Amino acid sequence: MATLLEAKNVTKIYAKSQRPSLNKVSFSVTDGEFIAIMGASGSGKTTLLNVLSTIDTPTSGSITLNGINLKNLTDSKAADFRRDNLGFIFQEYLLLDSLTIFENIAVPLTLQKLQPKKIENMIRSLAETFGIDAQLDKYPSELSGGQRQRASALRAIVKRPSILFADEPTGALDSSSATDLLNTLKESNESIHTTILMVTHDAYAASFAGRILIFKDGCIIQELLKQNADRRAFYESIAHEIAKLDTER
Amino acid sequence: MNHLSMALKNLKNNFSFYALYLLSISFVITIFFAFTSFSMNKIMLEKISGDGRVETMCSTISVFLMAFVIFYMSYSNRFFLRRRTKELGIYALLGYRKSTILSLLTVENLLSCFGAFVTGILLGGLFHKGIVFGITELLDLTVNNSEIPFFNLNAMIKTACFVFAIIIILSLSNSKFLFKSSLMDLVRFEKSAEKQTKFHAVPSITGFVSVILGYCIALDILRGEKSVWFSAGFYAVGMFTFTLILFGTVLFIASFLPYAVQTGKKNKKKFYTETRIITSPGFIYRMRSNSKTLIMLTLLSAATLTVSSVMALTLYYPIAAISRIAPSEIECHIENESDLSAIMEIVNKYSSGDDITFLQTNIYKVTSTARQLPMEYSAGTFKGDAGNEKILRNAGFECISYSDYTAILKAQGRQKALEQFTALNNNECIFVRYQPASGKDETGSTYPLLINNTEIPVTVTMTTLDNPISFANSVGTLIVSDSLYKMISENAAPETKVLSINGSSITGNEELFQALSAYLDKSPYLQGNSHRIHEVVSLNSSTFLLIGFLVVLFFIATGSILYFNNISAIADSKSDYDILTKMGYTNRTIKKIIRKQAITFFSIPFLSGLTDCIFATLVYKTALMQNLLADSIVLYAPTILAIALTLIIYMIYYCMTVHTCCKMVLEK
Q1: Cα–Cα dist B573/B286, whole Å
Q2: What DSSP string describes B136-148?
Q3: How far is it, in rounded angstroms, from Cα A116 to Cα B399?
């Protein structure tokens, strides 16, 4: 598999902070991977996600995604890059309240200037897989948290992004809704080879990924690979490592 | 920490947030204090109004002004309260009682209003001085400025009492809001979603049809006496049209516009664009809570635009009509031979110019035996409904010669009017109409003139509105050929001898006019172009000034409310713009979306108000204004100017709003 994303010595220091939020972080992501980033609060997980997704800029180091060096992008080029390459899922769903679910999902497709007929076909075919086909004409306020997050996931996936960034996607969901969503992400990863980079503090959510990067004080301190292990065994090994880290703290 | 220190800390830490509030209330207090100082300024009121007219007007406007200030400050207070609801919810979560939160808000309001009061008194005093200066310059009054205090103590007391009353009203409004809201409402106020709009075709179409029907009835006035306005009565039809448009506007904004936008979404090719997919649903979503504000702003805009447009027309039209009412700089009757030399002596005494022309015109009254005669023939021969006629005239055409006519026009400097005439044949004449013809005019009509008991028919070759003599001295002027005029003059004595005095060196010489008036014993036949203009300006300027004052205030109120409304909407949806940025919307596209959203909210009250204004002005001009001038776009120039000024004020507010909204959304 080809390398999709490569981060080299990425450092991020905020003006008011004494120590770096990211400290010379280097890693790469191959096409079709499902990676989970774990760590305690303030370990640099979300900062990493922000700099990788062009929402923030690193203080030093380089990030290459799809062969494009993100450091050289202007604001408008970065916006175009996000439009063409990236998908996002957030803990707070971040759906637009004034738009119906269908319209919310259609927004990134209109940005790509697709024909209305094609937009409609793409949404309707995927909505069934995500289990929200009956909710398409409703507004976000009329949906449950799980349905909203699935709508949010569908909005991120529908445009077939090169990479999907998920920031604590199950953080606000009950366990059943969380499992549904994680299964949907896993299915997208396996069936349409969506590359996923998911930030989570939950070992259960992380167990759906194929590789885990554990962060501490802005550095990757450990890497766990699922390889041939089943999900339950992988979950146990993640939980064990996290517990070990907690006791070392 | 007590309430005072907490309120001070809040104001200090959120200065940029409160600055807007302080600025807006300082502004309204400035206006209020300036107006109150003016209405209590006895020196000025004595100078501009001897009959108590201005005082009555000041009292009326004062009521409007107070109502407006209360409304405006309540709106601003509600706007800022809404922006702070979460903060108040946190106070409540921490264990503050609602009465304690109310005390905190009241102390903050007291501090804000005190700051605004001090600013308002300072700026208002300055503004009042500016108004006094403007009026004295405009009306050429002699006022001892040192007698007019910068700070009028009574006005200060009245303003202070009023501000205090407002604080009580705001506290009552805040207590109503606080005690009606649960803790959950306070904490989740910003997150609470708008209720979904329901789309109903019937009220939408009813609204649209009502507005169109109202405009059609307004247009019907152009049919003149055949129109429903004449057959059913002006008042009844006026009230019906007003109700129809009012009712229609409410439904048009609340139902028709969201319905039309929702229907427009079905055009998928147009809807699935990067901006419209955000702006169309956003408009529908916000309309439910904003429709009331938009309706109120539309009605306010319509009223303000109509008042300013009618005011501009009312001021300009009489001035424009003076070119017909009194076309010569000075004009009077010559009762006896000695008058001419005496008048010339007075003119020479008050003016040393060598461009003055004295033209005497002998007017002969000639009757006609025609069955159908124009209205001007017998105008002023009997008391009308209003009984305004002081001196009744005899029926008949008032004949002057073509040579006299062209000579007077030349002296009056009306070269352009002269170009349209050609010399008359013996049996031809030009008829001077009092008003423009609504249909076919008298051109081609033949009137047998009774000269020395002989009927001599004359044919009207053209009609004109370029009367050479004022209406006080001649109505129904008939310009006949020089040869016919000679025949008339040989057979009868002139009805009147009119002296027309013209020349740029006597233009605007009020002293000369007053001297002639004294000599002619205040004769009603003494007419003066500049004098009439001066009279119209003097009589109406204070009225227009006060109405203008109110109009500007309402414009600013509309603009400010739109500004607050848009900022509030943008602040509420700031997170939506963050989502769009993350999705790949460029700053340019986001600015485009903000501009589109703002222009929609600005254009609804403006365009709807403008349409109402156009039809209302049309009805006003057609039904209530005497039409002495031919319809020309120039007549509407002041109305167009008033609308253009409104547009400029709106544009300034629009640019300010877009700038602030973009800054709020795109600031990192």
Answers
A1: 10
A2: HHHHT----GGGS
A3: 78
Report the C-alpha gap between B127 and B105 in whole angstroms: 31
Element (H, E) at B479: strand B477-480
Is A154 an interface residue toward B (CB < 8 Å)?
Answer: no
Beta-bridge partner residues of B363: B496
Specify the higher pLDDT residue, B606 or B18.
Answer: B606
Domains of chain A, by residue range, sit at: 3-248
Please report residues of A whose CB lies closer than 8 A to that of B193: 97, 139-141
A108–B contact, CB cutoff 8 A: yes
Q: Residue holding tokens 């008829």?
A: B431
Closest Cα partner for A88 from A29, A158, A153, A34?
A: A153
| CB < 8 Å to A97, chain B | 193-194, 285, 573, 576
pLDDT band at A159 (very low <50, low <70, confident <90, very high): confident
In this complex, how many residue pairs, one in chain A and one in chain B, have their CB atoms less than 8 Å apart? Answer: 86
ipTM over 0.90: no
Residues B25 and B173 reside in one and the same domain: yes
Q: Residue B150 above 70 pLDDT?
A: yes
Structure confidence at residue B659 as a pLDDT band (50, 70, 90): very high
In this structure, how many other beta carbons lie within 10 angstroms of the beta carbon of residue A20? 20
Domain A3-248: CATH class, spelled out: alpha beta
User: What 3-state class would DSSP assign to B604?
Assistant: helix
Chain A interface includes B467 (CB < 8 A): no
Q: Does residue B262 fall inside a structural domain?
A: no
Euclidean distance between the first and final Cα of chain A, in Å?
37
Q: To which H or E segment does residue B281 belong?
A: helix B276-325
Q: Are A116 and B271 inside 8 Å of each other by CB?
A: yes
Contact (CB<8Å) A116/B284? no
CB B627 within 8 A of CB B435: yes
Using a CB-CB cut-off of 8 Å, the residues of chain B touching A51 are: none
Sheet holding A60-65: strands in order across? A22-30, A3-12, A60-65, A68-69
Closest in B193, B271, B282 to A141, CB measured: B193
Residues 374-403 of B with CB under 8 A from A: none
For residues B501-518, give the mean pLDDT.
Answer: 89
Minimal-distance CA residue of chain B relative to A140: B193
Task: State the Cα–Cα distance between residues B217 and B150, nearest whole angstrom.
Answer: 51
Percent residues over pLDDT 70 in chain B: 92
> Does B592 score more than 90 pLDDT?
yes
Q: Which domain holds residue B520?
A: 327-527
DSSP letters spanning B607-618 = HHHHHHHHHHHH
Write the residue in A100, A103, A111 that is nearest to B274 by C-beta. A111
- Among B192, B213, B234, the domain-final residue is B192
A77 shares contact with chain B (CB less than 8 Å): no
Say if residue B366 is exposed, middle or buried (CB neighbours under 10 Å; 0-12, 13-18, 19+).
buried
Per the structure, the count of domains in chain B is 2
User: Domain ends where: B502, B527, B552?
Assistant: B527
Would you say residue B194 has pLDDT above 60?
no
Task: Give tens-digit pLDDT for A117-147.
Answer: 999 999 998 888 888 889 998 988 888 888 8
Nearest CA in chain B to A114: B272
